């Protein structure tokens, strides 16, 4: 299987910095903020009070209860604690959800609206299914249509991986479009929905007035076959903690807990009080970070719009911009590098202008002309990094 493209760029940034280069990194999908102090303190207190032993595989009941209440109250996904499994990041939740719905050797197909996060396709294939990409056009803000979805479904389709707001697109689907796509899925009883809602709290109505999040699991037609995935990494600035979770229909949840019991067992036990603290007492901290990301989304879009020949979709959620830079393919860089695709564009940009971006290839077939820039960094970095890009592309011949 392929290496994670985003983690690979992270390693290149570290190598360039070790050589003394001043790199502006738009590569990593993680907030530059620190975890809010009250959440850290909850873990420290738990650790000091001796919460150092194995915990139940799916997690402490108190934390599972709080997650079930959050899903029920905020997302309309009616959930009880026994449907919840707390996982080592949302990544592991997605892995297990795919294992739960795919039967290897049966010819299963799983739908993936693209551009999509780099790990979905390898994880779908690892679980034994074919990944069927549905391309979201730049002209439609990277969003797929109901007609495209309907055309991609066949007798082998067992699931769809749904991700709104999206990494790498930086956009959320309007609720009415989610509903229309879900109406189509509802017609096909065999299809399970894995809904990755990790960027749910990072939506910018300041940019797209009226934009709201809609969880497929809140719709009666899909509730009994939707696995809702979420986690604390992005909204609570907790990437290094590795805390994710999923809520599944009860029968499926029991199987997933068996799988986790054989693979990793519970997450570190002293994190459970921190999860409760995050979900019950941190809304103000999340809102402060969200508002900052909204400012940066606008700044990043304004800056990228000033780069000639970039085709941009204005980000309205998460913390990514995903311009199409293919107008520069078949050109030669100042140092003589042939720019033939997004990978060579990104490599030469890092080597010559010291700006790190993630090339689009691994985000889907339709993303081969794009690069991803994370704006989970300071406003000064955004201005400085895009200025370097603007100067560098001006020298491509
Ligand atoms: N889902 C999406 C769409 C992501 O962008 C990421 C991280 O980049 C993850 C899941 C993984 O999150 P976690 O840190 O909880 O494993």
Structure description:
With 397 residues, the chain is an alpha/beta fold. The protein has twelve helices and 14 strands. The protein has helices spanning 5-18, 37-48, 61-75, 89-101, 120-126, 146-152, 175-186, 250-263, 272-281, 283-305, 342-353, 379-393; strands at 24-25, 84-87, 109-114, 130-135, 157-162, 192-196, 226-231, 244-247, 320-321, 331-332, 338-339, 355-356, 358-359, 371-374. The strands form four sheets. The chain has a seven-stranded mixed β-sheet with strand order 2-8-7-6-5-3-4, with helices on both faces. Strands 9-14-13 form a three-stranded antiparallel β-sheet. A two-stranded parallel ribbon has the order 1-12. α2 packs antiparallel against α9 and α3 (61-75) packs parallel to α9 (272-281). The longest helix is centred in the C-terminal third of the chain and has 23 residues, at 283-305. The protein starts with a helix and ends with a helix. Pyridoxal-5'-phosphate binds at residues 29, 89-91, 117, 163, 167, 196, 198, 231, 233, 239, 244.
Ordered list of secondary-structure elements with their pairings:
Elements: H1 5-18, E1 24-25, H2 37-48, H3 61-75, E2 84-87, H4 89-101, E3 109-114, H5 120-126, E4 130-135, H6 146-152, E5 157-162, H7 175-186, E6 192-196, E7 226-231, E8 244-247, H8 250-263, H9 272-281, H10 283-305, E9 320-321, E10 331-332, E11 338-339, H11 342-353, E12 355-356, E13 358-359, E14 371-374, H12 379-393
Helix pairs in contact: 2-9, 3-9, 4-8, 10-12
The structure holds pyridoxal-5'-phosphate.
Task: Offer a quick outline of the entry.
The chain has 397 residues and is of the alpha/beta class. 39% of the residues lie in helices and 13% in strands.
């Amino acid at each position: 299987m392929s290496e994670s493209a985003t983690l690979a760029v992270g390693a290149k940034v570290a190598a360039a910095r070790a050589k003394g280069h001043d790199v502006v990194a738009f590569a990593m999908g993680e907030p530059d903020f620190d975890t809010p102090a009250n959440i850290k303190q909850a873990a420290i207190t738990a650790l000091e009070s001796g919460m150092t032993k194995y915990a139940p595989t799916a997690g402490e009941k108190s934390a599972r209860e709080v997650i079930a209440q959050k899903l029920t109250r905020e997302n309309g996904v009616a959930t009880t604690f026994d449907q919840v499994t707390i996982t080592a990041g949302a990544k592991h939740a997605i892995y297990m959800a795919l294992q739960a719905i795919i039967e290897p050797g049966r010819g299963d197909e799983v739908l993936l609206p693209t551009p999509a996060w780099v790990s979905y396709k390898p994880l779908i294939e690892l679980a034994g299914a074919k990944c069927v990409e549905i391309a979201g056009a730049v002209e439609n803000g990277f969003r797929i249509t109901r007609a495209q979805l309907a055309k991609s479904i066949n007798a082998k389709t067992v699931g769809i991986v749904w991700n709104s707001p999206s990494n790498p697109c930086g956009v959320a689907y309007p609720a009415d479009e989610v509903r229309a796509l879900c109406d189509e899925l509802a017609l096909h009883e065999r299809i399970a929905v894995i809904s990755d809602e990790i960027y749910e709290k990072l939506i910018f109505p300041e940019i797209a007035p009226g934009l709201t999040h809609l969880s497929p699991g809140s719709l009666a037609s899909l509730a009994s076959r939707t696995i809702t995935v979420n986690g604390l990494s992005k909204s609570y600035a907790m990437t290094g903690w590795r805390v994710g979770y999923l809520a599944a229909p009860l029968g499926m949840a029991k199987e997933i807990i068996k799988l986790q019991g054989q693979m990793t067992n519970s997450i570190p036990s002293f994190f459970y009080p921190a999860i409760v603290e995050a979900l019950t007492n941190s809304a103000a901290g999340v809102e402060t970070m969200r508002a900052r990301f909204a400012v940066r989304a606008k700044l990043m879009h304004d800056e990228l719009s000033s780069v000639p020949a970039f085709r941009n979709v204005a980000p309205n959620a998460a913390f990514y911009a995903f311009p199409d830079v293919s107008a520069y393919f078949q050109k030669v860089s100042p140092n003589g590098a042939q720019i033939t695709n997004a990978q060579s564009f990104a490599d030469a940009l890092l080597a010559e202008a010291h700006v790190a971006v993630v090339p689009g290839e691994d985000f889907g077939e339709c993303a081969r002309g794009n690069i991803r820039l994370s704006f989970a960094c300071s406003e000064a970095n955004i201005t400085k990094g895009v200025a370097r890009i603007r100067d560098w592309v001006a020298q491509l011949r």
